[in-house]
Amino acid sequence: MMTRRPRRNRQSEVIRNMVEETTLGLNDFIFPLFIIEGQNQKIEVASMPGISRFSVDTLLEEVNSCVELGIKAFAPFPSIPEQLKDTNANESFNPDGLFPRAIREIKKNFPDVVLMTDVAMDPYSSDGHDGIVRNGEILNDETLEVLGKMALTQAQAGADIVGPSDMMDGRVAHIRKVLDENGYHKVGIMSYTAKYASAFYGPFRDALDSAPKMGDKKTYQMNPANSREALLEAELDTAEGADYLMVKPALAYLDIIKMLRDNSNLPIAAYNVSGEYAMVKAAAEKGWLDGEKAMLESLLSIKRSGADIILSYFAKEFAQYLKK
Ligand code: PBG
């Protein structure tokens, strides 16, 4: 006699739905957006089918279509013209630069959306690194000064949450201090707590032309072999004042998401990065798997592992899926 038959709870759709442990909803998502200079521009990223780079005018149309679908939070990233890049990323704290202009326009037209803005030097750096480079070394404390100015410029433009993605030591504390000293105590910090030196950022660097000109990011982004180190980063970010902890990438790091979830009371975010998106899209284009099912399973797995918030290029497609 078999007393325990787990299949009993799988025998019909109603029962399966009743015992379902994890559900995805639009409140879980932040949708990344790529911004370029110009007018009436919408240029698809070659390695990210379905994802485009928008000039500010068409960006507003894109935000509008997402808001109509029920997406309420966005993570915009600017693509900065090469001639405006320099070693100090000065354009990153120019209040009239592309990024602050775009933030102001989005918040003016859509005051209720939440904008989480990226704080890192790489889109503005002539070296393509997240920190100041001197003699081949990525300087930490000098970089914090730039990050503080960048975060303040974004807050002044209307950012609700700033997201330091640079992995310099001490950046959360420094940014918190600069924001508070300038009256921006309500602006939150979503720290890229456990950001790994990953091959899965390739398509993103295509989208922003932000790949490092020399070397790699291994002296600041984490070694994919390490998990205890993520706990150390989480402890520091929490002590320094982070409001959210993020793990990035997501799918190859579900154990890290789960570990932070089990060890922290802060909301945990996961970044389902460009390469994870591109893999599903490429295989679906070849007819090698069902793209929609693979999307849903990937997103569900990220949530099941413990993420409260998912940054994903699939957010809009997921919203469209819910509508139909
Ligand atoms: C920049 C940054 C990167 C991503 C987000 N912010 C790239 C990098 O660190 O090289 C990657 C996002 C993605 O791949 O979707 N600091």
Summarize this, please?
By secondary structure, the protein is α/β, with parallel strands linked by helices. The chain contains eleven helices and twelve strands.
How would you state the average pLDDT, rounded? 97
Shape call: globular
Number of E-type strands: 12
Main sheet specs = 8 strands, parallel, barrel
Strand content: 15-25%
Which class of secondary structure composition applies to the elements? alpha/beta
- Radius of gyration over all CA atoms, rounded: 20 Å
Query: Count the helices. How many?
Result: 11
- What is the share of helical residues? 25-40%
Q: How would you write the strand order of the largest sheet?
A: 1-4-5-8-9-10-11-12
Q: H/E order of the elements?
A: HEEEHEHEEEHEHEHHEHEHHEH
The protein's oligomeric status is: single chain
* Straight-line N-to-C gap: 45 Å
Bound molecules: ligand PBG
Low-confidence stretches: none
Describe the structure.
It contains 11 helices and 12 strands. The model has no long low-confidence stretch (mean pLDDT 97). The longest helix is centred in the middle third of the chain and has 17 residues, at 141-157. The strands form 2 sheets. It has an 8-stranded parallel barrel, surrounded by 8 helices. A two-stranded antiparallel sheet has the order 6-7. The termini are far apart. Helix 8 (254-263) links the parallel strand 10 and strand 11 (268-272). The chain has helices at residues 13-18, 56-69, 98-109, 141-157, 171-181, 202-208, 228-240, 254-263, 274-285, 291-304, 315-323; strands at 29-35, 42-44, 52-54, 73-78, 114-119, 132-134, 137-139, 161-164, 188-195, 244-248, 268-272, 309-312. Helix 2 crosses helix 3, helix 4 crosses helix 5 (171-181) and helix 9 packs antiparallel against helix 10 (291-304). The protein is 39% helix and 18% strand. It is an alpha/beta fold. It binds ligand PBG.
